[in-house]
Design a protein that fits this description.
Number of strands: 5
Strand order of the largest sheet: 1-3-2-4-5
Shape: globular
Order of helices and strands: EHEHEHEEH
CATH topology: Glutaredoxin
CATH class: Alpha Beta
Radius of gyration: 12 Å
CATH architecture: 3-Layer(aba) Sandwich
Structural class: alpha/beta
Number of domains: 1
Largest sheet: 5 strands, mixed
Strand content: 25-35%
Helix content: 25-40%
């Protein structure tokens, strides 16, 4: 399963109401570290059906970036049962990103 493009319209349904843990990547097309992290996020989305993966383009969804106080990108957030339980800023290895889910 690939990642879900998250917007202010679908965020509540896809993330807050999800019955699976959700990894959310806040990113932008002009961000070098975001581009470097993108293949890792894509691999996790494809290889781990037990995790829902969503991406928020901060340029297209500034309301979500403000709501979650995203000041630097990439920012990764983990949501479980509708609550944000982890938040990390910056690039990470695949192993480090998966460890955030624990």
């Amino acid at each position: 399963m690939s990642y879900i493009v998250l917007t202010k319209e679908n965020f509540h349904q896809e993330v807050i109401l999800s019955d699976k843990p959700v990894l959310v990547d806040f990113w932008a097309s002009w961000c070098g570290p975001c581009q470097a992290l993108a293949p890792t996020i894509d691999e996790i989305a494809d290889e781990h059906a037990e995790i829902k993966v969503g991406k928020v383009n901060v340029d297209e969804q500034p309301e979500l970036a403000r709501q979650f106080r995203v000041m630097s990108i990439p920012t990764l957030m983990v949501f479980k049962n509708g609550d944000m339980v982890r938040r990390e800023v910056g690039g990470r290895s695949k192993e480090d990103v998966l460890a955030l889910m624990d």
